[in-house]
Design a protein that fits this description.
This protein has 324 residues and is mainly alpha-helical. It has helices spanning 2-34, 38-45, 50-61, 65-90, 97-117, 124-145, 154-166, 178-204, 208-236, 241-265, 274-294, 302-323, and strands at 93-94, 121-122, 268-269, 299-300. The radius of gyration is 19 Å and the shape is globular.
Length: 324
């Protein structure tokens, strides 16, 4: 039976990855046809990081708060260590003023989120505060940069929209074609995959500590995988600062919008809050490590990339050791 649920995890991860890829690939086209900005459409339909949001909400609806907490923390660690690390190994990633703003603004927000998480529960009021912090985060960046913030994959979506506009697809704006259907299909796949992933973890174990460990590692990495691919692809193409800013910005998105939305739907509460203490600190340290490595040269070098990627298996081993 466990083997069956392991297959369900694999299928769920595949559905999430396909859904996220399909969503990002066709959202720009849908935005052109609907005559709205793809940034606005991304936030309207699923936010900047729909994979994490869908999985955390699925965990909330399934009354599995350990999975919700673990996914948020684990995904952020994977983004900082694996996504940025893999990208930097391919080619140095730019970490100029724009990216540094995203990171530095996200750090105190991360600290605030850890403060809410520390007692093992996030109430609806605290969830609402986290959502407000996300709006504040976007607002601060928007004011400083005088342009809409790049979050998660929204920059890639904007590029798709620009490319399609150049190909004169905008001439057919009045007809919403298959692009919008594919966007919806992507969202549906992410939703189904998230439900499968959460249910599989629940069926494999009902022990809170084990659920937390699996979520910090397997689930967190699965939902961050799309950003790993994005960083890898961006580095191969000569990564722009705005793309890396979007990846870094996903850290703040996850601890505010993702965690906040889940707790507003249903307050999150685990029995043993100490299960989250070390992982939550590790999450903050992962972002601090990125900032420290990037500050001297205003980029994440190949050497720094190897260091980030090498730190991730240490985190995984620590999580499994602590749960044993």
């Amino acid at each position: 039976m466990i083997a069956l649920w392991i297959l369900a995890i694999i299928a769920g991860v595949a559905a999430i990855v396909w859904g996220a890829e399909t969503f990002a690939k066709h959202l720009g086209e849908a935005a052109v046809r609907l005559q709205i900005s793809s940034f606005a459409l991304a936030l309207l339909l699923a936010g900047a990081e729909p994979e994490e949001l869908a999985t955390t909400i699925a965990a909330t609806l399934k009354d599995a708060p350990a999975i919700a907490f673990g996914d948020v923390i684990g995904a952020n660690i994977a983004v900082c260590l694996v996504a940025l690390g893999v990208g930097a190994i391919i080619a140095p990633l730019p970490f100029g003023k724009q990216v540094m703003r995203y990171a530095l603004f996200g750090l105190p927000i991360g600290v605030a989120a850890v403060g809410f998480i520390w007692d093992g529960q996030v109430t609806r009021i605290e969830g609402a505060i986290l959502l407000a912090l996300y709006i504040l985060y976007l607002g601060m960046i928007w004011i400083v940069e005088r342009q809409p913030p790049a979050m998660g994959e929204t920059e890639a979506i904007e590029e798709a929209a620009a490319r399609l506009a150049q190909e004169e697809i905008s001439k057919n704006r009045g007809r919403v074609g298959k692009e919008l259907l594919l966007v919806v299909a992507g969202l549906a796949a992410m939703t189904i995959g998230s439900l499968m992933l959460v249910e599989a973890v629940r069926q494999i174990t009902n022990v809170e500590a084990t659920q937390t460990t699996l979520s910090l590692t397997v689930v967190g990495f699965a939902t961050a995988f799309e950003l790993v691919i994005l960083c890898w692809s961006a580095a191969r193409k000569g990564a722009t600062e705005v793309v890396i800013a979007g990846v870094v910005g996903s850290f703040a998105y996850n601890v505010t919008m993702t965690l906040g939305a889940a707790s507003v739907i249903r307050p999150l509460n685990i029995t043993d809050a100490t299960l989250l203490h070390k992982p939550a600190i590790a999450m903050l340290l992962a972002l601090v490590l990125v900032i420290v490595l990037a500050t001297p040269t205003k980029q994440i070098t190949q050497k720094a990339g190897w260091l980030l990627v090498g730190a991730y298996p240490i985190f995984l081993l620590a999580m499994f050791w602590l749960s044993s």
